[in-house]
Amino acid sequence: MSKAGSRELGAKARLPRAFGGTSHASPKHGPASRLESGTRVIRTSGKGGFTMVEIALCLAIIGYALVAIILVLPFGMREQGDNRERTIINQDATVFMEAIRNGARGSDDLANYVYAITNYQTLYPPGLPPTPVGYGSGYLTNGARIIGLLSTPEFTDNNGLPLPNLSGGGTSNHVVAYVHSMSGPAVEKPPQNNAILVQNSFTYRVICENVPVAVAAANSAYATNLEANLHELQLTFLWPQLPNGSLGLGKQTYRALIAGQLMTNGPALYYFQPQFFTNAP
Fold it and tell me: What pTM, to 2 d.p., does this model score?
């Protein structure tokens, strides 16, 4: 037999039976069988899926997770509200602190937010209960009056002049401002004239304390001038102001030392002059 003929027989032997070739392997029987085309098929006797026990366990786990999420959700929303209120307080405190520190008289926009200021005055030596002096929106029409009232010193004499202490008698002033927040949603801000929306806006109180700085060296010219030209401003924010007049649990105090003269301008109005200093007698 020629070489060409032997190659033809060898190639024919390697071809599958479907193409006319010869097979030397006998077919197998059982789960795996060989088709005529040479493709192997795996046959399984069982069927895949989840049992009722597995499904019940999955539902129990999902239900437990949902209950945990529902329980945590109110705490997360409450914390988000608290963070928003603290952010508003921090922004508003910066405005008040800078305006009072610089003795600003042109911040007329404050009249849109500060709707009442009360000064609880107590006479010393004590003999009478505190006398509240109130200022409403009819008087708080410009920034000069608002800043002038918020800068009221803690101790004054009978003529309204600042005192370093009440050892010789005088008046103790406790100034409280009632404020609609300056920061927050724009829909709550002026020129909004919807009374219901304005009343439901975030509102807080500010306790303004213009405290004289205590000095160690008493009865000296240095101590006298230091008391007259150095003051500690304390702004304590209490929030939220509720419709029934009570307060929430929010509280934050801001402090700053202000160097300069504290001058009066009209009845019960005081302004810091940070660029001017006085020589006290």
Answer: 0.73
